[in-house]
Amino acid sequence: MSTSTLFPDPPLLASHALAVPGGHVLQVQEFGRADGIPAVVLHGGPGSGCSPLLRRVFDPARFRIVCPDQRGAGGSTPRGSIDHNTTDDLIADLHRIREYLSIARWLVVGGSWGATLALAHAAAQPRAVAALLLRASFLARPQDVAGFFDELSLEMLAEALSSPQPAEREHAALRWWRHEQSLAGTAAAEPAGEALAAQVDRLRVEAHYLRHGCWLQSPTLLERCEAVPRVPTLLLHARDDRICPPEGAERLHERLPLSQLEWVDEGGHDAGHPAMVSAMVAALARYASHGHFDRGSAA
């Protein structure tokens, strides 16, 4: 991965352990400036946790970058837990985080599942959202889930990932991981040891959400767009994304009246591909300078 357009990883500004209902404790990290433009970063998965890449597309001299690990993900505990872990729980947690940090409104930035959650959050809490930057949007429709798994069985993988047998859990995680890598167009090293244990926990959470339609079937995410505030909204999507179909970005663009859809010519589903990194960095620079994503000088 080229890092030529990424900012250096900023020092930690603050770290919070926020207890929420259901026995979960969320890790919420802040980077950048305490008086910067508030922005919340919503990671994918569900279950993946906030990686350094997700914060490095922001200029730390201009943003207050809030990075919560969602229930069961990353540094939140208990890791991999699917108890009291639904989309509505995550939406309620975002309200709690915003109040805890005394942030009235924030720029919401999400990729893949993070874009899904960003839209659900915006529809449920429209006054909290100043703008939306959505990368590789996932609509959580039945055809999106079926298209991802293809010949793999979600139900069988979900059962195996919660098996009491470590070998069965690890085998299921590796099957899923290899399939995901082949679709994403990335070339990461195959996980082993603690890295594989983390994948088991990540995918247990993801399977839990996907087998329940992410609790976004009635109303659907597209139907919820009616309640999304009319704020600056940019959809970034790679034309060759094989995990989140580009057609989904087109449907969102149709449902969000003030949205702009910007195509990235290559990169698949890789958030670290130089083309996608460049598009994210440029979009955030425009927003920091002008309060919107319209193309123009980004001072």
What report would you give on this structure?
The chain has 299 residues and is an alpha/beta fold. It has helices spanning 52-55, 87-100, 113-124, 142-149, 154-161, 166-184, 194-211, 221-224, 246-255, 274-290; strands spanning 12-20, 24-32, 37-42, 63-68, 106-111, 129-135, 233-238, 259-264. An 8-stranded mixed sheet has the order 1-2-4-3-5-6-7-8, sandwiched between helices. Strand 3 (37-42), helix 1 and strand 4 (63-68) form a beta-alpha-beta unit.
Question: What's the SSE pattern?
Answer: EEEHEHEHEHHHHHEHEH
As laid out across the biggest beta sheet, the strand order is 1-2-4-3-5-6-7-8
Helix vs. strand class: alpha/beta
What number is the mean pLDDT? Answer: 95
List keywords for this structure.
alpha/beta, 38% helix, 299 residues
In summary, what is this structure?
The chain has helices at 52-55, 87-100, 113-124, 142-149, 154-161, 166-184, 194-211, 221-224, 246-255, 274-290; strands at residues 12-20, 24-32, 37-42, 63-68, 106-111, 129-135, 233-238, 259-264. The chain is of the alpha/beta class and 299 residues long. The longest helix has 19 residues, at 166-184.
